[in-house]
Amino acid sequence: MALTIGIVGLPNVGKSTLFNALTRATVVAENYPFATIEPNVGVVPLPDPRLGTLAEMFDSEKTIPATVSFVDIAGIVKGASEGEGLGNQFLANIREADAICQVTRAFADPDVVHVNGAVNPKDDIETIATELVLADIQTLEKAIPRLEKEVRGKKTEAEVLETAKGAMTVLEQGTLLSLGAAQAGLDPEILATFQLMTTKPFIYVFNVDDAGLTDEAMQAELRELVAPAEAIFLDAKFESELVELEPDEAAEMLAESGQSESGLDQLASVGFRTLGLQTFLTAGPKESRAWTIRQGWTAPQAAGVIHTDFEKGFIKAEVISFDELVEMGSIQEARAKGKMRMEGKDYVMRDGDVVEFRFNV
Ligand SMILES: Nc1ncnc2c1ncn2[C@@H]1O[C@H](COP(=O)(O)OP(=O)(O)OP(=O)(O)O)[C@@H](O)[C@H]1O
Ligand SMILES: [Mg+2]
Does residue 190 contact residue 196 with C-beta atoms inside 8 Å? Predict the structure, then answer.
């Protein structure tokens, strides 16, 4: 399952700096607005300490973590929908993203230009929200006449057109569809087919400085501003330095800065939660591997992520939770003690299940 997160925000707020830290890439991150023009795409392994444990237990040749793709695009300014700045064309690069990560500047450094001359997270969030709403309105303005024609020609269900019009009404009130669609009674599955920006779940990253990392009052205020969406506070510049260090050095630096988990690890786990995802694990001498699935998926659906044949020919799954396996010490011991469960096609997967699928080909 290719999971993609699009990074948006005003110019010069630290989007590329965050992207570089995430992907350990070196794309241009410079102290001037619109340093990024072409989109950058990077694939990031999801840190998962369980994999190392499994690899040791199964003597695996390698570990393969689950991944997330990040797409870093140009900054958006007020009026982008009317062509201001670089316009909003490049939003097309994140139309297919599963979630949007909005980076908002909350660091002070007067040497870094703010396009509006002052650091004001609340205003900046509103500007970006407005531009994304306007971009969606533009998309629907093009789609609705086409859908009307298709409905007349009986090529499309009337409900699709009604959903598009309903979405338009929500957007015209200035509301993000992620917040307003359910209330307006819009079918989420139909809505998803329009690939609108504001239907996607949002994750807010506040790019702070040293002081901001420990300023709980400020964090509480910003958290409230974006609720029910999740807020993450990190110093993108510091994170980009952390990833250059050896793991133990990085852990020490992190502890010194008063954080228990790096901002990047937080972003990965919040992204997972926001998208309703979970991980299951497979292990053997060849590899120990993490796989991404949605919460609520059944065993055959999970098997299908490995190979479509596994889903079609699914017989049963031999399952044990990671924690229980660790307690047992080995899969042989778990089997001997009858701790391996045989689950059928209705079994709903749980995060951290270690699985071996049985299937017919
Ligand atoms: N937490 C921080 N504290 C201080 N400076 C920072 C921080 N994060 C990023 N910067 C600096 O801000 C500047 C802009 O960063 P970056 O190029 O990543 O922004 P951007 O949002 O990608 O901009 P653009 O839209 O122009 O591509 C860089 O000089 C970077 O070093
Ligand atoms: Mg950039």
Answer: no
Give the span between the Cα atoms of 227 and 342, in whole angstroms: 41
Question: Residue 51 is encoded by which pair of tokens?
Answer: 């994999």
In one-letter notation, the amino acid at residue 322 is F
| Tokens 């990190």 -> residue | 234
**Is residue 137 within 8 Å of 198, Cβ to Cβ?**
no
Q: Which domains does the chain have, with CATH numbers?
A: 4-273 (3.40.50.300), 296-359 (3.10.20.30)
Q: Whose CA is nearest to atom 2 of ligand 1?
A: 237
Mutation probe of ligand 1 site: the residue of 10, 22, 31, 70 with most atoms within 8 A of C-beta = 31
Of all residues in the chain, the percent with pLDDT exceeding 90 is 65
Q: What is the pLDDT of residues 143-156, one digit of tens each?
A: 999 999 999 999 99
* Token digits of residue 144: 């609705």
Tokens of 124: 């900046």
The pLDDT tens digits of the residues spanning 14-34 come to 999 998 888 876 667 777 777
Ligand 1 contacts (CB < 6 A) are 9, 11-17, 29-31, 33-36, 74-75, 107, 109, 112, 207, 209, 235-237
**Kind plus residue range of the DSSP H or E element containing 132:** helix 121-152
- Phi/psi class of residue 329: alpha, beta or left (left: φ > 0; alpha: ψ in -120 to 50)? left
Q: How far apart are CA 210 and CA 234, in angstroms?
A: 9
Distance CA 31, CA 19 (A): 15
Percentage of the residues of the chain whose pLDDT score is greater than 70: 98
- Looking at the DSSP bridge assignments, the partners of residue 8 are 102
Going by alpha carbons, the residue nearest to atom 9 of ligand 1 is 14
